[in-house]
Amino acid sequence: MSPIQVIRFALAGLSANKVRSGLTMLGILIGVASVILLLAVGNGSSQSVQSAISSLGSTSVTILHTQGSASSSSTTASTAFAEPKDLTVQDAQALESVQGVASVSPVVSASETLSNGGSSDSSVSLTGTYSSYFAAEKDTFSQGAAFTTEQVSKAEAVVVLGSEAATNLFGTANPVGQSVLVAGSPFTVVGVLASKGSSGLGSADNTAIAPLTTVQDKLTGFGSLNNIVVQAKSSTVVSSVQSAVTSVLYQRHNETAADADFQIFNASSVLSTATSTARTLTVLLGAVAAISLLVGGIGVTNIMLVTVTERTREIGIRKAIGATPGVILAQFLTEATLLSVIGGILGVVIGVVGTRFQIAGVKPVLLSFSIPLALGFSVLIGVVFGGLPANRAASMRPADALRYE
Amino acid sequence: MPYPVIRLASVVKVYGTGQAAVQALRGVSLDVVSRDYVAIMGASGSGKSTMMNIIGCLDVPTEGKFLIDGIDTSSLDETQLAVVRNRKIGFVFQSFNLIPRMSGLKNVELPLSYAGVGSAERRSRAEAALRLVGVADRMNSQPKQLSGGQQQRVAVARALVTAPSLILADEPTGNLDTKTSHDVMGVFDQLNAAGRTIVLITHEHDVAEHAKRVVEVRDGRIVTDHRVAAPSDPPPLLNRTGVRP
What we know:
The complex is a heterodimer of chains A (405) and B (245).
Chain A: H1 3-15, H2 18-54, E1 60-65, H3 89-95, E2 101-115, E3 121-129, H4 132-136, E4 141-144, H5 149-153, E5 158-161, H6 163-170, E6 179-182, E7 185-193, E8 207-211, H7 212-220, E9 227-232, H8 238-253, E10 262-266, H9 267-310, H10 312-320, H11 325-354, H12 370-394, H13 398-403
Parallel strand pairs in A: 3-8, 5-7
Antiparallel strand pairs in A: 1-9, 1-10, 2-3, 2-6, 2-9, 4-7, 5-8, 6-7
Helix pairs in contact in A: 1-11, 2-9, 2-11, 2-12, 9-11, 9-12, 11-12
Chain B: E1 6-15, E2 22-32, E3 37-41, H1 48-55, E4 63-68, E5 71-72, H2 78-88, E6 89-92, H3 104-114, H4 119-133, H5 148-160, E7 166-170, H6 178-193, E8 198-202, H7 205-208, E9 213-218, E10 221-227
Parallel strand pairs in B: 3-8, 3-9, 6-7, 7-8
Antiparallel strand pairs in B: 1-2, 1-4, 4-5, 9-10
Helix pairs in contact in B: 3-4, 3-5, 4-5, 5-6
């Protein structure tokens, strides 16, 4: 018997009970569509996290001040002398002489309320730093420009606003040259940053950046810096700069890795952590989808078992007039495979269409391998899950099958 | 001396094992030669259905041998038995056993499909068989759209389309009224007159009267074997029904 003949028989078998065939296909359809869609969602969220992190700047190294890690490891004698030290402007100046460093920007940060003197005010994260900070953070300006090094040394009351903070305070008007009150002190706006988008932890645009000296003088006082942003000369020397900076700080603070009062990281290390987190998420979503595909496959087995039982007499007739066990096996395997393949193709269509929409704030990005993967699995499901019922049909004894009522 | 079409040699068939074992056939020997028209008669439980299963290669004997066209079926596996059924035997069942949702023509083509015959030849042979039994005009109808007599004629066409050595009919008129029974038996008479070997399984004397030889089975044994006409003679009731198929 020709394969075309086998497929024709199988199609006739499927069309005999259209509702049942349709519902079984729906199970596979949902499984395949969810594999494609959930993998795309996982991939999309990982890509958006990656692009957010890479916008932080791939050449910058951030030294973050931490407190009190020394007290937890008091077993060694040296820890007695290793009181947590402040991260100071002197530390920052010392780092400027490290090989490969382009700039060093000491940073203090605080959450402050901004007001335009009128009705609107908003709470922003205020950063006090040097003008080199903008380059290290890859900030670009939509209006105005950065404050100058001279303005930093004179501690002038100037401020650069993030795009969201500017919109909140001034709407569509140009804020440059306007005055804002930062915690009650008047500052002159000199620039507005271009939008950077969300970094996953709140908006990166709801910010205000002012000279370090001014912020310390008027708002935070002259305590420890919150962090120091070191910009390397190129991305290839980032890791050597990071280790050199680390050893300089250990020396200055008289510390070791065990009792350090700072953390140091660069964007690429954050990126790899975030990437592995996102990969875990994708695998998890894929596993959930695979389970639904498996459930769909069990549906195929179930319905094919019912079909074989219902058509016992037909199988008996076919055997009596000369169908070999192989032909019967082929017919029912083909039926099961057609069920899952047609369901699979429809699932691919719906899955691909689904990736055009934003899902839970994530723009899904289709993984090209997921289509052949899902389709391949749906064929496999047809063969594997159709195997048991088809085999049952093929091994029926013709005399018994003919007598079946 | 050519082979008989079928030969049963001391066939014993036992169903079940141990205490539950039932002897359906207790040593049956029977030869049917070419062109013969044999009725196997018996009440229910006599073992005639078991004989039909063995003659139809749907089942194999527990002991003894069954040969069809000289082929010993005891050494064949299920696939080879299927091929023998396809090439050597045409079945006609009491309940017609057409496959639903397939037109009469497709039903008649089915054994040829399993034999691997190409679609054009399949169609012409199936149409010829349907013309021979007189239902060519209804060949595109599905079984449920046909009357009982028409369905049984389609079934007869399906049985003879492969030009088998033997047409095996199990109570072919059991589900038909008297008039239709006569018509269908007329078809069998015509086929036998045209040279087909036919074995009828029946419990009705009216039906057995059409045969050239009547074999009676009781309790798993052949009790009488009555020859009415020689295998080369025309069937005894040919054209008595007055209906040409």
